[in-house]
Specification:
5-stranded antiparallel β-sheet
Length: 272
């Protein structure tokens, strides 16, 4: 089973979470830890021990303690550590042959690693910050929101640990282009314009877009327009008005692509 499938089955339970600004006297006692702990270092320096391995953790580092690990830690008094830290446990129940079974899922994280990709590091900081905001809110639904943030953290980290050739810089650029399309789909768009919006060449955009999404920018634009067209048609817009509203200047091409993607013509779709 793929890691992403196992994570889909995971139900985390959180014991403690904090955005820590260490004081000079901050210490992690030398003791066996009984929960999972994930720590993202955002500034300063921590001196840590996991079992027999000692290491320094600085900005961009990920630290992971699992149940049963012997740990110890303090901060460099001249460079006080700042970090996000979450203590948690989890279960992975799945339905198999009519019965519930619990998967034995091991998180693929070493005790100490460095996040090389600055775009990934930035996204992780955003997610940890969201988690902390929801955790400290006290709202009755905070667990659900925290789980959503946390599971995205685990999925991003798992993919990174399994294949650190993933280019989050490219993903960031593609996300910006997708947002640009969403804001401008109703008018004519060209590959050159999309590339200019993120200041790269059209050929490079075509390459990273296909690599990231599995389709070309133009294919994405057409699919996005058809998805919006369905919304307009379902709200009572005529086929002609819909074609214009989603950026198709030619009814023939609108009908052609609509049928190719949806399997029926836009006229037939309105009668379904």
């Amino acid at each position: 089973m793929k890691t992403s499938d196992m994570l889909n089955a995971m139900v985390p339970h959180f014991h403690f979470a904090i955005k820590r600004y260490a004081t000079p006297s901050w210490r992690i006692p030398h003791a066996v830890f009984h929960h999972h702990n994930l720590m993202l270092i955002i500034d300063g320096e921590a001196n840590l021990l996991c079992n027999d391995a000692e290491f320094k953790a600085t900005s961009g580092d990920l630290v992971y303690f699992k149940p049963g690990d012997m740990r110890r830690g303090d901060t460099n008094p001249n460079s006080l550590v700042k970090c996000y830290t979450i203590d948690f446990q989890y279960a992975c129940p799945i339905r198999e042959n009519g019965s519930w079974v619990h998967l034995d899922v091991v998180l693929p994280f070493p005790p100490h690693s460095h996040i090389q990709d600055r775009y990934l590091f930035r996204r992780l900081k955003e997610l940890f910050e969201e988690f902390m905001r929801h955790w400290s809110s006290g709202h009755e639904n905070r667990t659900f929101k925290c789980r959503a943030d946390f599971m995205e953290i685990l999925l991003l980290l798992s993919k990174y640990m399994e294949n650190n050739t993933i280019n989050y810089s490219s993903i960031h650029k593609v996300e910006k282009v997708i947002n640009y399309v969403a804001a401008n789909y109703a008018r004519k768009l060209t590959l050159n314009e999309l590339a200019d919006s993120i200041q790269i060449s059209p050929s490079h955009l075509g390459h990273i877009f296909k690599e990231t999404t599995g389709e070309t920018p133009i294919e994405f634009i057409i699919k996005y327009r058809i998805a919006r067209a369905k919304e307009f048609l379902e709200n009572g817009c005529s086929v002609t008005d819909t074609a214009r509203l989603v950026g198709f200047g030619d009814m023939f091409y609108f009908s052609k692509y609509f049928k190719k993607i949806e399997g029926v013509s836009p006229t037939t779709y309105t009668g379904l």
